[in-house]
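Thread: quick sanity check before group meeting

JM: Hey all, I'm pulling together slides for Thursday and realized we never actually wrote out the predicted structure for the chain we discussed last week. Dropping the sequence here so it's in one place. If anyone has concerns about the input, flag it before I start.
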Amino acid sequence: MTLDELDKRILQQLQHDAALTNHALAALVHASPPTCLRRVNRLIREGVIARQVAILAPEKVGAGLTAIVEITLDHQATEKQIEFEALVAQEGAVQQCYRVSPGPDFVLVIQVADMAAYHALAHRLFATQANVRNVRSFFSILRSKFETLVQLP
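JM (edit): ok, ran it. Output follows.
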């Protein structure tokens, strides 16, 4: 799908505030409301806009510990990687899961209440899994930047 300048302006505004009304969005991107609505609907239909969410402040809702975790599997066959991805997909505290190369097989971003909650999650996801060879965890002491924006070319 090719994005024109109007699409890019719409996406830029929605990345900053997806709760804008169609009329407010249209005014910001210098388009008519019907044109703007058609464009947004097309961007959703085409999968460019994957979803619209509220971004919470973790420390305000009792999820103040962020862990970045490297996972190395014993067996890296595709089916074993898919099994591991399915396991972590079921865990709400796992915010992001990436297959990476080189180095570990996966990098996870995990958001939990505290170290006790992390320990319980690590036991469930890593210690009891026969295919997990190595776990290396890093704990955030300060989040100096967090952004969900995708830079548009």
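AS: nice. The longest strand covers residues 65-73. The chain is about 40% helix and 20% strand.
JM: adding both to the slides.
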